[in-house]
Design goal:
With about 100 residues, the protein is mainly β. About 10% of the residues lie in helices and about 45% in strands. It is built from 2 helices and 8 strands. Strands 1-2-4-7 form a 4-stranded mixed beta sheet. The longest helix is centred in the first third of the chain and has 6 residues, at about 5-10.
């Protein structure tokens, strides 16, 4: 089983909390999937991750705390602690903490 406790994920957190931070914590290699990733993402108040896409990678984002505006394609929604989003390959996406 591949699992992470919230405390373990928080230990991976960025030492400079005023900047956005991202780290892939699960990859296809670890899961046996072709090209997937689960990312640890920290976006401070007022911060953002610019809209971008991944050519062949599926991405999973799980919210540990706070609220962000997540955009995937033309759809935007607020994500809060406990929410999970799946992003298909080639889907333009970005995250904003307002």
């Amino acid at each position: 089983m591949l699992s992470f406790l919230k405390s373990e994920l928080m230990e991976m957190a960025n030492p400079t909390p005023e900047k956005s931070f991202g780290k892939v914590v699960v990859t296809g290699e670890a899961t046996g999937c072709v090209d997937t990733a689960c990312a640890l993402l920290i976006v401070p108040a007022g911060g953002f991750v610019p809209r971008h896409y991944h050519k062949s990678r599926e991405v999973w984002l799980f919210m540990l705390k706070g609220v962000v505006n997540q955009t995937v394609g033309a759809e935007s929604r607020a994500l809060a602690a406990g929410d999970l989003v799946f992003i298909e390959p080639n889907a333009v996406h970005g995250t904003e903490n307002t």
